[in-house]
Amino acid sequence: MQINLGVNLSFVGTRWVKPEEWTRIVAEDLKVKYVQFFSDILDPIFTPLNLREKTCDKIKKLCQRYGIIIQSNFSGTIPHCLNLLFHPDKEMRDASVKWFENGIEDTLRMGSFGYGSFFGALPQKSLLNNEEKDSLIEEFLSKWHYLSKVGKEKGLKFMLFEPMSCRREIPSTISETKWWYKKLNEVSDLPVHLLIDVGHGNVNSPERKDADPYAWLKEFSKEILVIHLQQTDRITSKHWPFTREYNQKGVIDAKRIIKIFQDREREIYFFIEISYPPFEPFDEMILDHLKESVDYWKNALEK
What is the CATH number for 221? Predict the structure, then answer.
C-alpha cells in the first residue's frame, strides 16, 4: 500500500497567493511533497491568459526547486457557487466549457497531468423535472467527452470527479456515484478517477450509508485515487483541522481510514483540505492547525 500524504491548497485563500509564499510553506513549514492545486488561486476565466501563463511558469519552476509535485488541479470555492455545465441557459452552459478548457491548459502549464472539477449545480426547477434533468445530464456527458478529448490531445493523463453533499450537486449518493463513475469512463478519452471527500455525502438521503464516510470509502476502495481529508461532525461539511480539540468533536479517525486501504496495491493520495474564512482570527491560526493536522496523519501512517 502506498499512501501519498499532501495538502489541498484551499488554505492559501487570499492569504499567501504568491507562488513564492505557498510553495515555501508547503515545503518548509508543512514538510510535504504533494499538493493539489486549488483553482481559486488562479481562476481560469477571471485571470487573463498572459498572466496565467506567467504565473504557471513561476509555479512550475518553484515546485521543481522545492521538490513539490502537483498531483492534480481541482476546482475551488468560486465555481462551487456557479451552475456551470448545468446552467438552465444553453448559451451559458456552452460558455462555461471555456472555464474547464482553460483549467486543463493551466494544469499542464504548471507541470501537472491531472484535472478535475465540481460539475456544476442543477437549478431547483431542473432537479424536480426529470425530463429537464435527463436532458442536462445527456448534454453534460457530451461536453465531458469533448473536454477529455481536448485534455488528451494536450497531454493530460487523467481526470477526477467528486461526489457532493446535496441533490442539486450531483452525484451525492453512493448509487448515483456508481452510475456516474461508469458513464464518465465510458464517454471519456482519458481515465476518470474518483475523489472522495470524507465530509461529503448526502445526510438527507433515505439510505443511511450515504451519510457515512466509512461506507463511501469501503464501497469505492478500488476506484478512489484521491481523498480529501477534513475533520467533520457529518452534520455538515466542516473542513475542520485534525487538532486535539477538533478530533474530539469529529468522526474522522486516521487509523480507521488507513485500515480500509491496507490491502490496496495501487497508490492513493490523501490531501488535507482545511478551509477557514479569510479573516481574523483564522489567519493567525490556520498554519498551526495545518502543521498539527499533517503531524496527526504522518504519525498514523508511520504506525
Answer: 3.20.20.150
